[in-house]
Amino acid sequence: MTNTHIQIDILSDVVCPWCVIGYKRLFVAIRELGLQEQVSIHWHPFELNPLMPPAGENLRQHLAEKYGTTLNGSIAARQQLTALGHAVGFQFNYFDEMRMFNTRKAHLLLQWVKETECQTQLADAIFRAYFSEQRDISEEQTLLSLVEAMGLDTQSASRIFQDSAQERALVDAEQQWLNNGFHAVPVMIFGGTNLLSGAQEVDTYKQVLSEFSGGTRHV
User: Distance between CA 204 and CA 195 in Å, rounded?
Assistant: First the structure.
């Protein structure tokens, strides 16, 4: 394999469990191929529920109303996701009163750190805060505590929540993805050409990464 740089763009929402599975499987593939130093990941915003009220909604009720998910279907899905998460080292701690939250502020923070090497670390922390630690990731203090734990400036981060220009940029970025026909997540784009939708298997990610790192690409 050559030392070719591989950029991976990930379109996701921080309350999407399949985004977690896909991202964790991708990292398994990167690690198994020894490509940690060759890969850079850029996270892009996609709000599944941009109009979600501040208080959020009961997750089961939300999924029932939006997708028609039954109680038995919800139980089965949570069991499946928990098992899949365990297989890639991620802990899903679902509970009966779990809520779906607005993710605008979380995406604003991810946009804030997009030019640094901390974006993936922050995305991972938000995933864990919501799915593993049962925290409200729509709350500013919850998000700022994650920023502080990473050693970043919380005062600068807190100003992002009131920055109308940053919010407009976020909304414009999301609209561009929608205009380009993207309506579900996760989506991963390798090298600006190879696009994979949904949470793929580790071997699928390894195949695409090997094509890039070996100097060949297939669109």
Answer: 12
Instruction: Identify the bridge partners of residue 188 per DSSP, sorted by sequence position.
Output: 10, 196
Half-sphere exposure of 130 (CA within 13 A, CB side): 24
CA–CA distances in Å: residue 128 to residues 37, 92, 143, 178: 24, 8, 12, 27
When the pLDDT of each residue in the chain is averaged and rounded to a whole number, the result is 94
Return the pLDDT at 212. 84
The CA distance from 80 to 170, in Å, is 32
Q: Are 39 and 190 in contact (CB under 8 A)?
A: no
Residue 84 backbone zone (phi > 0: left; psi -120 to 50: alpha; other: beta): alpha
Q: How many other CB atoms sit within 10 Å of the CB of residue 139?
A: 14
- Parallel, antiparallel, or unpaired: how do β-strands 194-197 and 187-190 relate? antiparallel
The pTM of the full predicted model, rounded to 2 decimals, is 0.94
Residues contacting residue 31 through CB under 8 Å, at least 6 positions apart: none
Q: Look at residue 189 and give its three-state secondary structure.
A: strand
The residues of the chain scoring below 50 in pLDDT are: 1, 215-219
